[in-house]
Design a protein that fits this description.
About 60% of the residues lie in helices and about 15% in strands. With about 425 residues, the protein is of the alpha+beta class. Strands 4-1-8-6 form a four-stranded mixed β-sheet. The protein has a four-stranded antiparallel β-sheet with strand order 3-2-5-7, with no helix packed on it. Strand 2 and strand 3 form a beta hairpin.
Length: about 425
Amino acid sequence: MDLKKIMALAVMFVVALPSLTVVMGLETFAIAGYKYEDKDHDGVHDEGEPGVEGVTITLTVEDDEGNPVNIGEMSTDEEGYFIFSELEPGTYTVTETVQEGWVASTETSYVIELSDETVSLGFGNYVVETDTDLECSIEIASLYLEDIKGVVDALWGEYGEYPDHAEVLDRVKDILGYGDAEGAEDFLIQASEAYDSGDYNLAARSLAAARNILGRVNGMLTSVYKAHKVARTERFILQVEHRIEGLEDKIERLKGRFGAVKANKAHVSMGLAKGRLGQLGESLSVDNVDEVIDGLEVTIAGIDAALEDVGGDDSELLEAIDRLEAKIRVLRASSEKLASKGLDTLDVDGGLDSAESLLSAAFDSLVEDHTDEAETLLEEADDIVSEASNDLRTIRHPNKGNKDPKPGNKNRGSR
């Protein structure tokens, strides 16, 4: 086994068994670590980020008067590892010497209270070709922060009424820097100020801290999004079930026009689709929501195919009526949600009522073989539904296009 593998295993072994030296009666411990190239500048050692050889690591300890005394110095091996062993309990400082042309994305010095365990550290650096690389990274992170804030505000408007998710979103706002606690925005301001003063190491560390927070936020927002993706999928399954029930009733009323064979075949297809929906609903979870959505698409395609098999102009009109009814159901759900927040949706509700009446009349005309009249009524209903959809959009976003900052953002001038 070559030296670098032995060193890597030694570090892992010491970290995994911090009490080994105690068992041997030496009462000593170790400080181990790893120096890596932080390619994405986020201050986290990710897979694919290699170790850096030849970086000087210095170990100091406080004397009786509290002054630092250099007790060890070594270079990282070709895999980036280092280890100071047989250390007695005490206060130690481990410091890296940042190589010329590199910028630290983590702390360059750690104070360690070594008492009853072995400590493992990580030092991350990245190469900066020009000073403007760091400035651009700060600018990009600041823009990304504003994008994330927009997402948080949108999610709050969508999911803030749910206590579990409101709690997560509140924590997200805190760590982004909406409140008084130090957050991503504070670190970016610090990074910008440090860059302007020429302290590139501090600027890089502050940037790394901000990126770390933004990475955590992504995970937290993903958890909210996934949970509500499940909830929305559940609602969609119910909507499709309502659609099938409505189609079964319509197919029965049009049985004389379709013919018994085609109508019965369509009924069988609707029954199979309903059974499939039940299976999808029972299996739905956060882990398989995408698979369930794929299954829903297949089920809906089967419903559409069943309607097409009926054939003729009657089938096309029935499909058009069915689609518009589904759209009305979605708009009603949106209207109810906005009304629950105290917004005025009475005109929208009135329009949807009128559209439903027109659709009912259009279907009656279709049953009576007055297809031209059915088409005219359908077009009128479609116009009303389109208007209601636009009205809901205006109610939901009354200030769309307003460039003023969103409420809740501190807008403290991060770069």
